[in-house]
UniProtKB/TrEMBL annotation:
Species in which this protein is naturally found: Gasterosteus aculeatus aculeatus (three-spined stickleback)
Lineage, broadest ranks: Eukaryota, Metazoa, Chordata, Craniata, Vertebrata
Keyword Protein transport set for record: yes
Protein name per Swiss-Prot or TrEMBL: AP-1 complex subunit gamma
Pfam families reported in the protein's UniProt record: Adaptin_N, Alpha_adaptinC2
Family annotation (SUPFAM superfamilies): ARM repeat, Clathrin adaptor appendage domain
Keyword Cell cycle included in the entry's annotation: no
Protein family membership: Belongs to the adaptor complexes large subunit family.
Length: 818
């Protein structure tokens, strides 16, 4: 058989291929020849064939059939064969294939070989692809080589030990004695790999971290020698002595100094020296400075040192390299909360980065700019950020608009400035703002009584200029509906009033209703605004005509509004002025204040309670009582839920069905005290801590409240510690049928001498065959210690059919209400 071609010839031939198909043909032909050679057990050219196979593997062609040939080369006594064999093993084998276990014995023999280069090959292979089983078997040999005096083997053994620790962390203590003398080595290669090994051990074990903290002075000494040493051609990179070792030592110091005062104190001086003596003209020096900054920020460093670190990042912002500017912005963003004043000194440089062409730098600069906003610089920073909002790409507008809203709400110097700023955002980026911006701005305008005329005039002008920004149009429509009389009367004092007639205002709102640019929600705002103007303008007949037209709209929401408004004009015209009067001021408490949840028509509306000046009568409680009067019940308390019901459209009817025939014979019903008790009960424990942190289990026996058609409802009881009048009932719904019960809804009602709160359920699906339960918590306030009675309503879907059932529960354990 002729001798196979050499590797160089193969490479030259492959490079002459003009097409991918031609290259594949050459590879397939050579692979066939290599297979034939392998079958004939040709030891002479096995090394050459495996080398060619590795080149094909690097090109992306399959070479798995050469795995066993690699093992044969490793077992060879020739160094050239071993070198190609180990290289092939590292490329073609990994721990997922059982073949690699066959080489364990060869590696063990080579680790004990008399030639250091053979030992080095074995260490490299084990450190590259050794599995956990191989690492366990060969860790002893690696540890032995780690103690040898040969620096060539020690550096390779240290890296191999890192791989062993990653694969088998419990072997870490085996290498602890060998690490004692590693840092005293003069060879930089050994020092570098030793620091990598120590870093790995410290990151994986708190005990090792505490043990190695005593090495901080030694590491500081090594780092000092590096920065003070003269020119060394062997280790010099752009005029800096071994920057790779410096970076590794700084990283290890960061780990050792974190949350430790003594270690941090020991390294403060050397960090200051590195920060001031490192050359910044080359990228090598910047890499060391960046690592120094990270170390200073992570350890318990002095305040002056932290300012020095932030100033280094500030210099990075002026660098021409985009990567360095990005790194600086990201680092400043992490430190701005702890060192806000130091970062503020670089505010102008950060704002300049908003004009950078690179989108990543622009985004980081935007995030950092918002983090720097405070009460002192709000006007200047908002001016820059609004200019950025005008000119930035669409991908930035949503985040920028949200940031402006939050900053303006937190630091606004005046209400007029706040309103002007938000209106500027709506006019420039209205289509990109968050969904909650419209109600937030409406609340802000409502609460700024003295600004009503100014605001409605500004919004009317904006509406004449542009109706494409839907949030702006919605806010403007709402304000015109509320304060249209102020707009027409020209009462604005802040700026020159405009002369507008009632017909002009109605023309604008009607134009919104027919505009193709208006969304369905916007049309709803416009129709409601027109309806409200019926009590503020004199042209009622025109408004009646517009409202009646939309009674047959194809938009169901718009049609429903129009039909209801028509009814107000006809049957309930005497109620119209009262129903359409101006919205009252919306009181808003401090952040994280108590919020009362009010259930109306199936929608959950948060009503914030002013804790400083409580009203004499609780408005939400009155609304609930009015709802009961409307439904015909006057002796029961409504269920106030914390989540939206599954079927909101029919919530009112279901409540009527649930409460309609609750038997209350023999139960006295004194006049309810809704002014103070209900809000305090509902908000009990919600403002400062989780609801049931303070609940202690009491000896109240559980009970089965319902067991029918495969559905079983069990009640378990607990008593709230701060208020013994509150019973906490947990329902457990289980399903013994063969099909899941979906759309499960549990509702409850109690007599009016009690107060009841129903929290959200764990799920709305009750699993079949008792494979799980749905839980829901009920809190019942019983101040008069009367016998507890409850009517429950269960709604669910079983095998596609809706099921509904009512039940009355009267057999509560005495311990639950006494």
């Amino acid at each position: 058989m002729p001798a196979p071609i050499r590797l160089r010839e193969l490479i030259r031939t492959i490079r002459t291929a003009r097409t991918q198909a031609e290259e594949r043909e050459m590879i397939q032909k050579e692979c066939a020849a290599i297979r034939s050679s392998f079958r004939e057990e040709d030891n002479t050219y096995r090394c050459r064939n495996v080398a060619k196979l590795l080149y094909m593997h690097m090109l992306g062609y399959p070479a798995h059939f050469g795995q066993l040939e690699c093992l044969k080369l490793i077992a060879s006594q020739k160094f050239t064969d071993k070198r190609i064999g180990y290289l092939g093993a590292m490329l073609l084998l990994d721990e997922r294939q059982d073949v690699h276990l066959l080489m364990t014995n060869c590696i063990k023999n080579d680790l004990n070989h008399s030639t250091q280069y053979v030992q080095g090959l074995a260490l490299c292979t084990l450190g590259c692809m050794g599995s956990s089983e191989m690492c366990r078997d060969l860790a002893g040999e690696v540890e032995k080589l780690l103690k040898t005096s040969n620096s060539y083997l020690r550096k390779k053994a240290a890296l191999c030990a890192v791989h062993v620790i990653r694969k088998v962390p419990e072997l870490m203590e085996m290498f602890l004695p060998a690490t004692k003398n590693l840092l005293s080595e003069k060879n930089h290669g050994v020092l570098h790999t030793s620091v990598v090994l120590l870093t790995e051990m410290c990151e994986r074990s708190p005990d090792m971290l505490a043990h190695f903290r005593k090495l901080v002075p030694q590491l500081v000494r090594i780092l000092k020698n590096l920065i003070m040493s003269g020119y060394s051609p062997e280790h010099d990179v752009s005029g800096i002595s071994d920057p790779f070792l410096q970076v590794r030592i700084l990283r290890l110091l960061r780990i050792l100094g974190k949350s430790d005062d003594d270690s941090s104190e020991a390294m403060n001086d050397i960090l200051a020296q590195v920060a001031t003596n490192t050359e910044t003209s080359k990228n090598v020096g910047n890499a060391i400075l960046y690592e120094t900054v990270l170390t200073i920020m992570d350890i318990k460093s002095e305040s002056g040192l932290r300012v020095l670190a932030i100033n280094i990042l500030g210099r990075f912002l002026l660098n021409n390299d985009k990567n360095i500017r990005y790194v600086a912005l990201t680092s400043l963003l992490k430190t701005v909360q702890t060192d806000h004043n130091a970062v503020q000194r670089h505010r102008s440089t950060i704002v300049d980065c908003l004009k950078d062409l690179d989108v990543s730098i622009k985004r980081r600069a935007m995030e950092l700019s918002f983090a720097l906003v405070n009460g002192n610089n709000i006007r200047g920073m908002m001016k820059e950020l609004l200019y950025f909002l005008d000119s930035c790409d669409p991908e930035f507008k949503a985040d920028c608009a949200s940031g402006v809203f939050l900053a303006a709400e937190k630091y606004a110097p005046s209400k007029r400035w706040h309103i002007d700023t938000i209106m500027r955002v709506l006019t420039t980026a209205g289509s990109y703002v968050r969904d909650d911006s419209v109600p937030n701005l409406i609340q802000l305008i409502t609460n700024s009584v003295e600004m009503h005329a100014y605001t409605v005039q500004r919004l009317y002008k904006a509406l004449l200029d542009d109706i494409s920004q839907q949030p702006l149009v919605q806010v403007a429509s709402w304000c015109i509906g509320e304060y249209g009389d102020l707009l027409v009367s020209g009462q604005c004092e802040e700026e020159e009033p405009i002369q507008v007639t009632e017909d002009e205002v109605l023309d604008v709102l009607e134009g919104l209703l027919v505009s193709n640019l208006s969304a369905a929600v916007t049309r709803g705002y416009s129709l409601t605004a027109i309806m409200k103007l019926s009590t503020r303008f004199s042209g009622v007949n025109r408004i009646k005509k517009v409202v009646s037209i939309y009674g047959s709209s194809i938009d169901v929401e718009l049609q429903q509004r129009a039909v209801e408004y028509n009814a107000l004009f006809k049957k309930y015209d005497h109620m119209r002025p009262a129903l359409l009067e101006r919205m009252p001021i919306m009181e808003k408490s401090a952040s994280n204040g108590p919020t009362e949840i009010v259930q109306t028509n199936g929608e959950t509306e948060p009503s914030v309670v002013d804790s400083k000046h409580p009203p004499p009568v609780s408005q939400p409680a009155n609304q609930a009582n009015d709802l009961l009067d409307l439904l015909g019940g006057n002796d029961v308390v409504p269920v106030i839920q914390t989540t939206v019901p599954t079927k909101p459209a029919s919530a009112g009817g279901e409540l009527l069905d649930l409460l309609g025939d609750l038997s209350l014979s023999g139960v006295p019903t004194p006049a309810p005290s809704v002014a103070t008790s209900q809000p305090s009960f509902l908000l009990d424990g919600l403002s400062s801590q989780p609801l049931f942190n303070d609940i202690a289990a009491a000896a109240i026996p559980p009970m089965t409240a319902y067991n029918k058609n495969g559905l079983k409802i069990d009640f378990t009881f607990e008593r709230a510690n701060p208020n013994p009048n509150v019973a906490v009932i947990t329902i457990h719904a289980s399903n013994s049928t063969e099909a899941d019960m979906t759309d499960f809804v549990f509702q409850a009602a109690v007599p009016k001498t009690f107060q009841l709160q129903l929290l959200s359920p764990s799920s709305n699906v009750v699993p079949a065959l008792n494979q799980g339960t749905v839980t829901q918590v009920i809190r019942v306030l019983n101040p008069q210690k009367q016998q507890l009675r409850m009517r429950i309503k269960l709604t669910y879907t079983l095998k596609g059919s809706p099921v509904q059932d009512l039940a009355e529960v009267n057999n509560f354990p005495p311990q639950s209400w006494q």
